[in-house]
Amino acid sequence: MTTLTPAQRRTLRAKAHPLHPVVAIGQHGLTPAVMHEIDVALAAHELVKVRVFDDDRVARDGLMTRICAELACASVQHIGKLLVLWRENPAKHEKPAATRRPRAPKGASDGRRPAASSAARGEASPRRRRAMGAAPAAPRTPATPDARRRRGRADADAAVPAGPHAPSRRRRRGGA
């Protein structure tokens, strides 16, 4: 059975808070199948919650002690009918070996990217075109004058008809 420091226990309790129970111990108690499921869950997640459907607190404490002894895990918390268990999985914390592919020589095409860049084809990039003074693409404008007004565009004034029967640009508030 692994023992935890109070700081480790506090950290694990915080990590376990949003978790849902993954194993339930029902009326048949702690069967070998249930022990196997707890073992599998600990191997996969390291930190698991187990729900016990038993009203006797002393019996739940006994279950917690038995699980921790048989599966070599640590008891994090016993709150109500929930048991929180933790067992470190060293395989989960191993750093994988470097498996990067070597880079292809420049100009070679391996099917992942085009063989020639835009510069090699004689084209300038959008940034280069702007630097050379090319006119930027026209901004996209909404289709209707109302949409322009809603967006608060400066060019909305040109689209709104002027005259005595034109809609007012100011909103009137209630009152006299």
Q: Which runs of at least 5 residues are low in confidence (pLDDT < 50)?
A: none
The end-to-end span amounts to: 80 Å
User: Based on CA inertia axes, which overall geometry fits?
Assistant: elongated
Strand content: 5-15%
Number of strands: 4
Provide an overview of this structure:
The chain is of the alpha+beta class and 176 residues long. The protein has a domain at 6-90: 2-Layer Sandwich (Translation Initiation Factor IF3). The protein has seven helices and four strands; from the N terminus they run H-E-H-E-H-E-E-H-H-H-H. It has helices spanning 6-16, 32-45, 57-71, 90-93, 126-131, 145-151, 156-159, and strands at 23-25, 47-52, 74-79, 82-86. A four-stranded mixed β-sheet has the order 1-2-4-3, sandwiched between helices. The longest helix has 15 residues, at 57-71. The chain starts with 5 loop residues before the first helix and ends in a 17-residue tail after the last helix. The model has no long low-confidence stretch (mean pLDDT 78).
